[in-house]
Amino acid sequence: MRHSQAKSVRITLQGDKERLSLTVQDDGVGFPPEATSGKGLGLIGIEERVRELGGRVTISSHHQQGTLLKVVIPLLPEVSS
Description:
Layout: E1 9-15, E2 19-26, H1 41-52, E3 56-61, E4 67-74
Antiparallel strand pairs: 1-2, 2-4, 3-4
């Protein structure tokens, strides 16, 4: 919220046997898609951690229209001994 100047943020967490999905959507100032420098260390860190878990991150942001972050992480099947 500090950087986005958002007034509201919606966080949704869902899961099933195969995957865990997280979305974070705000109504902040966003950043233009061509602004690669708009991805700060926080977003880069999220992308790195999710990638290490075999997941994917998508970020949609438009200047003055907020940002939508989607994370999907596959869940590994339990190993029975």
